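Can anyone check this?
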Amino acid sequence: MSSVEPLTVGTLRTEAAAFAESLNQRPVAELFGTTDGKALGTWIESSFNEFLAESYAFEAGSAARGIDFPDLNVDLKATFLSQPQSSCPFRDASQKVFGLGYHLLVFVYEKTDINQTRTARIDVRHVVFVESERTADYQTTAGIRGILEREGNLEDLAAFLEERNLPLDDTGRRSLAERILARPPQQGYITVSNALQWRLQYGHAIRNAGEVAGVHDLLR
């Protein structure tokens, strides 16, 4: 039996790039004709876990913990290049300001069917790793940072949070504004839409990966 070593965030990032490159060269018969994004994403995520398990020991994700690599504080997503988005559990409104509380590892892919061989090709175009402090909402954090640069006060921040329709009452907005004044947030690079679950969109992260601190394209 081959030995396995503990998985780290560093090796996870390295192996994500290696997996993407191997997947790009692999015909996949079981995905031929499949157009369901959820089914495709689940297949990619499951295949990556199997790829890692050949060489590394790690704690598998669970519904209770809510993320795929809880011991590394990393959640895994796979999404179409044409519409790069996914959902994640809602915890509280401050996630739009200070981030989700964990890192994101996102496979962004295109899928093509090859009729001659009745196989599918999964072409991973980006592997984006977004550090946890950069997983806040792009427009919300940009607006907050602009207010602070203009020496805005508690009332300015609370009014802005109300304009952004964060799911908070008056007391919650004031409390969050106080947190912002005490610890201004970093610029986020995810679009986080209000819903029963957060709806995450990755366009800003993809465009800025490798150009800003905390957002990496692992294939570059």
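Reply from J.R.: I decoded it. The CA atoms of residues 33 and 113 lie 7 Å apart.
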